[in-house]
Amino acid sequence: MRYALGVEYDGGDFQGWQRLEKPGAPVHTPSVQSTLEAALAAVANAPIDTVCAGRTDAGVHGQCQVVHFDTEVVRTPRGWTLGATANLPPSICVRWCVRVAEDFHARFSARARRYRYVLLNRAVRPALGRQLLSWERLPLDAAAMHRAAQALLGENDFSAFRTVHCQARHPMRELQSIAVNRQGEQVIVEVQANAFLHHMVRNIVGSLLLVGRGEQPEGWIAELLAGRDRTLAGPTAPPQGLVFVGPLYPAGWGLPDEVTLREA
């Protein structure tokens, strides 16, 4: 039997999603994946291996990460949801569980993925919620950032916005939407693509910040994209402002609305 889970987590407590305990890392910095699998194993009384829709780095959060796992252990979806959450730390919860077809794949069945980056734009650093946003003290022109970002739409070579350690086979990605909006003291960047390169969103945000501060013109983002040179782009934005909102799947998989593509 194959199940899909919707998982929410505060990435600040973990070294990232992937079950890859770094050599020499303190024991109190596990991965989200290893922590989730231990909780599921406690419910199943058997080992559980999970596959996720998109890996996140240390400090990056997940609003609705989707994973799948296979098991012969009989539990209801509610049993998996409540049982796993009961065995998880406060920084992770399982939001829902759905039994899915055997050919469903959390990564390869997804048609899009969404990220949100939140900037607190004010002169004084935050005391509350600082683990869920990034602070920018200089005034930002969100409208200029939005206009500049539109040059990234479509299928493009995003070499200028990938880390040098990115292991993707090629740098081509289809950016389906990107919006920058101000909501009070917050500037929010929302991005959707078929897939993302390593650090792609954080590198885009880091470059857009230079436009928002007036240090670079709006057309600079298009020049970076065409130049395909990471060394010319802005710095990588901090991880704590980034949230993996979740993937999107065709309606036929029977998943909750928040991860299902809307028909045109």
UniProtKB/TrEMBL annotation:
The active site is at D57 (nucleophile). Residues 8-108, 148-250 form the Pseudouridine synthase I TruA alpha/beta domain. Keywords: Isomerase, tRNA processing. SUPFAM superfamilies: Pseudouridine synthase. One of its GO terms (biological process) is tRNA pseudouridine synthesis. The keyword Isomerase applies. It is an enzyme of class 5 (isomerase). It catalyses: uridine(38/39/40) in tRNA = pseudouridine(38/39/40) in tRNA. Belongs to the tRNA pseudouridine synthase TruA family. This is tRNA pseudouridine synthase A. It comes from Pseudoxanthomonas winnipegensis.
